[in-house]
Design a protein that fits this description.
The protein has seven helices and eight strands. It is of the alpha+beta class. The strands form three sheets. The protein has a three-stranded antiparallel beta sheet with strand order 1-5-8, sandwiched between helices. A three-stranded antiparallel beta sheet has the order 2-3-4, covered by helices on one side. Strands 6-7 form a two-stranded antiparallel ribbon. The chain starts with a helix and ends with a strand.
Length: about 180
């Protein structure tokens, strides 16, 4: 995992020489790598983008910022990624007794889910796609409740075990859904 990114999540200088912290990060990275079971699911759809919405078939996502991000794209990748339920269990194990370790684990897990998302993007790029920046429900004016449509569109619960709470939070917690515009199709 990217130690500089983990330090950024911890709001600490990437040039830190705090051996105790660096050692704890290494321990937590090992624990995370032992427990994660990443799963991803993606589909590429034809789409229509207006100045304020993305349309995929009959499904409409209202967001001016998402539309700006996807402007000119005729295809979009919709995806979900998760690190699995073991990560939530790992956090629950330490949360009551070791807040420092829990915070470092959170940072390691955040870095790890980004690594999983980046790997999916690299896979798409290796297939010749030119991609826009990822954009997720909950960003700016794309309401978090739009996750309900994402889940329905690509069947994340059935296919990779990702679920939504009543407040549209994902379980397992270290999970991501996003849109990636495809420029060259």
């Amino acid at each position: 995992m990217n130690k500089a990114e983990i330090l950024r999540y911890l709001r600490t200088s990437s040039k830190t020489d705090d051996e105790k912290l660096l050692s704890l990060i290494d321990e937590c990275c090992n624990e995370v790598n032992d427990c994660v079971k990443p799963k991803t699911l993606h589909r590429i759809f034809d789409c229509t983008v207006t100045d304020s919405e993305l349309k995929i078939g009959d499904t409409v996502f209202k967001s001016k910022r998402l539309a700006q991000n996807l402007n000119g794209c005729r295809k979009v990748c919709v995806f979900g990624a998760t690190l699995g339920t073991e990560c939530d269990r790992l956090l629950r194990t330490y949360a009551p007794t070791d807040i420092t370790r829990t915070m470092v684990l959170q940072a390691c897990l955040a870095s790890k889910i980004e690594e999983v998302c980046d790997a999916l993007e690299n896979e798409l790029k290796s297939q010749g796609y030119s991609l826009r920046q990822r954009y997720s429900p909950g960003y700016f004016d794309l309401d978090i409740t739009e996750n309900k449509k994402v889940f329905k569109l690509i069947d994340l619960t059935k296919r990779i075990g990702l679920t939504l709470t009543d407040t549209c939070q994902m379980v397992p917690t270290k999970s991501v859904t996003a849109f990636i515009g495809i420029e060259n199709d």
